[in-house]
Specification:
Structural class: mainly alpha
Distance between the termini: 58 Å
Protein name: Fungal specific transcription factor
Pfam family, one: Fungal_trans
Strand order of the largest sheet: 1-2
Order of helices and strands: HHHHHHHHHHHHHHHHHHHHHEEH
Keywords: Membrane, Nucleus, Transmembrane, Transmembrane helix
GO molecular function: DNA binding; DNA-binding transcription factor activity; zinc ion binding
Largest sheet: 2 strands, antiparallel
Radius of gyration: 28 Å
Strand content: under 5%
Number of helices: 22
Organism: Colletotrichum higginsianum (strain IMI 349063) (Crucifer anthracnose fungus)
Number of strands: 2
Shape: globular
Length: 568
C-alpha cells in the first residue's frame, strides 16, 4: 500500500507540475502527500494498542532506592573508557533524568540507567586500579542497581512500547540474565527485543535509513546485538530462532562505522559465529534435520565446519589489522583472553557440529575422529585460557563462565566423558580431571558456576569409577554396581551398552531390536578382566539417539540454571 501510494503521488506530481490550469488538483495532491507520509510510519506500532484500555497505576519505580548521585557521577567519571553499548552523552542524560525527574522517566530509561550503573560498579569493584576501600563500596552499589534492574524487568507488561530505548533496555536485561546464568530468561527478554526491532524495521535497510549516519549505525548495531543473542541461544536452548536470515537486508556491522572500527570488526565475527550456531540447530538438531538421513546431516555438518573455518581465517585477518591497536586499548593479557576464549567457543561449536557426523562403519568408537579431536582441542585451549586469566587473578573468570562455557552447549566435556566410558582411555580421563580441577574456583563467583562445577565433578567421578571397575578383577557386587550405573547413564540419555555403533543390519538408522544382552544386564557381561560391553558402550548412530543426546545435554545444562536442582 505504501509503495502504491508513493507511485500515485509521484505520478500526479509530474502530471500537475506548475500548470495553472490544474492548480485545483493541489488540494488532492497535498492530501495524497499526507497519506504517503502517514504510511511511511510503522503501522504495527499503532496496532499494538487497545483503543478502550484504561490506564492503571503501575509499579512506582521512582520509589526505588538509587545509589547516591555523587557515587554514580564518580563511577561514570572513572569508567569513561568503558563505553559498552551506549553513547555516553545519551547515558548521562538518562542518569540525570532518573535522578532529578523521577516523575518523568519511563521503565526503559530506569532499566538502562540501572543496568549501565550496575555494569560500571561491578567492573570497578574488580578492577586492579580501584583502591581497596572503594571496591567494597562499588560492589554494594552494584548490588543495589541489580535489585532495581531485576525489579523493573520482573514488572514489565506484556505489551511494550516500540522504542529504541525499550530495545536497549530489553537487551541489557538479556545480558544481565546471561551474567547470572539464566539463558531461558535471557531468551524471553531478547525475543521481546527482537520483536520490537522487527516492528521498527531495524532489520530492513529501507527502514533504517534516516539521513543521519550515527543514528543508522546505532540502529544496525542494536539489531545485530539482538541477532547475536537470538542465534546463540537458539542452539544453547534447542529452540528455533526468532529472527529469520532470509528476512534481513541490513548489512553486517562494518569497520567503516563511526562506532569504533576495531570493535565493529570483532563484533562482526561474533555475529557470524552466532549465525553458524543458529544454523547448527536448524540444520543438524531441529526436528526437520533429525528427519533427514545421516548422509544429509553429515553433508550439512561438513558445510558448517567449513564456514567456521572461514571465520577462523577471517579472525587472523582481523588480528593483522587491529590487534596492535586493540592491545594498546585494553592490554596484552585482556586481548589474549578474548582471543583464546573466542577460540574455545568456536572449538566447542565445532565439536557439536562434528557430533552429527557418524563414525565410519567398523569404527571402534562411537564418535567421529573429527568430533573427538575437536573436543580434545577445546579442553586444551580451555587450559590455555585459564593460564591467561591466572595472570590477572581470575577477575575475568565470571565473564568466561557466562559467555563461553554457559553461553553455548559446552559438549566437549560430555564427548570426552562418553569416549572414556567407551574406551577407558587414561589420557582422556586425565583431561576430564584437569578440566574439573581448573574450574574449582568457580564456586567463589556465582551459584550457577558452582553448580556447573558440581555437575562435571559428578560425571568425572562416574567415569573414574567405571574405568576402575573395568580395569580391576571381578569382585562380589561389582557386576551389580556396573548394571546400576548403566541404568543411571541410560536415564541421563546415554544409550545402553547393548546398542551397536553401526545401526541396523543394513547400516541404516534403525535402532537394533533386542540389544545385545538379556534381563537386567543391558548388554554387559563379565570376564576375568572385569566388566566389558558386548557391543559399543554408547551407540548413538541413529536420528532418535542423536536427538536424545542433544536434548539430554540441554537438560543437564538446565540443571545449572535451576536454583532447586540437586547440584545445590
Amino acid at each position: 500500500m505504501t509503495a502504491q501510494s508513493i507511485f500515485a503521488h509521484d505520478f500526479l506530481q509530474k502530471a500537475v507540475g506548475d500548470d495553472s490550469s490544474v492548480l485545483e488538483m493541489r488540494e488532492t495532491l497535498d492530501a495524497l502527500h499526507s497519506l504517503v507520509d502517514a504510511l511511511k510510519q510503522q503501522p504495527a506500532i499503532h496496532e499494538l494498542t487497545y483503543p478502550h484500555a484504561r490506564p492503571i497505576a503501575r509499579l512506582a519505580l521512582g520509589d526505588c532506592e538509587m545509589p547516591p548521585v555523587q557515587s554514580a557521577v564518580n563511577a561514570i567519571r572513572e569508567a569513561k573508557g568503558l563505553t559498552k553499548h551506549l553513547a555516553w552523552n545519551h547515558f548521562t542524560d538518562l542518569v540525570l533524568k532518573v535522578y532529578f525527574s523521577p516523575a518523568d522517566f519511563n521503565e526503559a530509561e530506569f532499566i538502562i540507567v540501572n543496568a549501565g550503573l550496575e555494569c560500571l560498579y561491578m567492573d570497578l569493584s574488580v578492577n586492579k586500579a580501584t583502591a581497596a576501600p572503594l571496591k567494597e563500596e562499588y560492589a554494594k552499589m552494584g548490588t543495589l542497581c541489580t535489585s532495581n534492574l531485576e525489579t523493573a524487568l520482573a514488572n514489565l507488561p506484556l505489551h511494550l512500547p516500540a522504542t529504541m530505548d525499550m530495545i536497549v533496555a530489553l537487551l541489557f536485561g538479556a545480558y544481565h540474565a546471561m551474567e547470572v546464568a539464566k539463558p531461558s530468561l535471557a531468551w524471553t527478554l531478547n525475543t521481546a527485543s527482537a520483536q520490537l526491532c522487527q516492528t521498527l524495521g531495524y532489520h530492513r535497510i529501507a527502514s533504517v535509513r534516516s539521513g543521519n549516519p550515527d543514528d543508522e549505525d546505532y540502529k544496525v548495531f542494536l539489531f545485530w546485538s539482538v541477532y547475536f543473542v537470538d542465534k546463540s541461544l537458539s542452539l544453547r536452548l534447542g529452540r528455533p530462532s526468532t529472527i529469520s536470515d532470509y528476512d534481513i537486508t541490513v548489512p553486517y556491522p562494518s569497520s567503516a562505522s563511526k562506532m569504533h572500527g576495531a570493535l565493529m570488526s570483532y563484533f562482526c565475527l561474533w555475529v557470524i559465529v552466532s549465525r553458524i550456531q543458529g544454523k547448527t540447530y536448524e540444520l543438524l538438531y531441529s526436528p526437520e534435520a533429525l528427519s533427514q538421513s545421516s548422509s544429509v546431516r553429515e553433508g550439512r555438518a561438513r558445510g558448517l565446519a567449513a564456514e567456521l573455518q572461514q571465520v577462523t581465517d577471517r579472525t587472523q585477518e582481523t588480528h593483522a589489522q587491529y590487534l596492535e591497536s586493540a592491545i594498546e586499548a585494553v592490554g596484552q593479557n585482556t586481548m589474549d583472553f578474548f582471543n583464546v576464549s573466542d577460540e574455545v567457543l568456536r572449538l566447542s561449536l565445532l565439536t557439536i557440529i562434528y557430533r552429527a557426523v557418524p563414525s565410519p562403519p567398523g569404527s571402534s568408537t562411537t564418535f567421529s575422529t573429527e568430533c573427538i579431536g575437536a573436543a580434545r582441542a577445546t579442553l586444551k585451549r580451555h587450559e590455555d585460557c585459564m593460564a591467561i586469566m591466572a595472570k590477572d587473578g581470575y577477575y575475568l573468570f565470571p565473564m568466561y563462565m557466562n559467555w563461553t562455557i554457559l553461553f553455548a552447549p559446552f559438549v566437549p566435556f560430555i564427548v570426552i566423558f562418553c569416549q572414556v566410558m567407551e574406551t577407558s582411555d587414561a589420557t582422556d580421563l586425565a583431561r576430564l580431571q584437569g578440566f574439573v580441577a581448573s574450574i574449582q574456583d568457580a564456586k567463589e563467583f556465582t551459584e550457577a558456576s558452582a553448580r556447573l562445577c558440581r555437575l562435571f565433578q559428578v560425571l568425572y567421578n562416574v567415569a573414574f569409577r567405571y574405568v576402575e571397575m573395568r580395569n580391576s578383577s571381578q569382585q562380589t557386587g561389582q557386576a551389580q554396581a556396573s548394571q546400576e550405573m548403566d541404568r543411571y547413564l541410560t536415564a541421563l540419555g546415554f544409550p545402553s551398552a547393548g546398542q551397536s555403533s553401526e545401526g541396523g543390519p543394513d547400516g541404516s538408522d534403525q535402532l537394533p531390536m533386542g540389544g545385545g544382552g538379556s534381563g537386567g544386564d543391558e548388554g554387559m557381561t563379565s570376564t576375568g578382566s572385569g566388566v566389558v560391553p558386548l557391543n559399543q558402550m554408547l551407540w548413538m548412530g541413529n536420528a532418535s539417539q542423536l536427538e536424545d543426546w542433544f536434548y539430554s545435554n540441554q537438560q543437564m545444562m538446565g540443571l545449572v540454571e535451576d536454583d532447586d536442582s540437586f547440584l545445590q
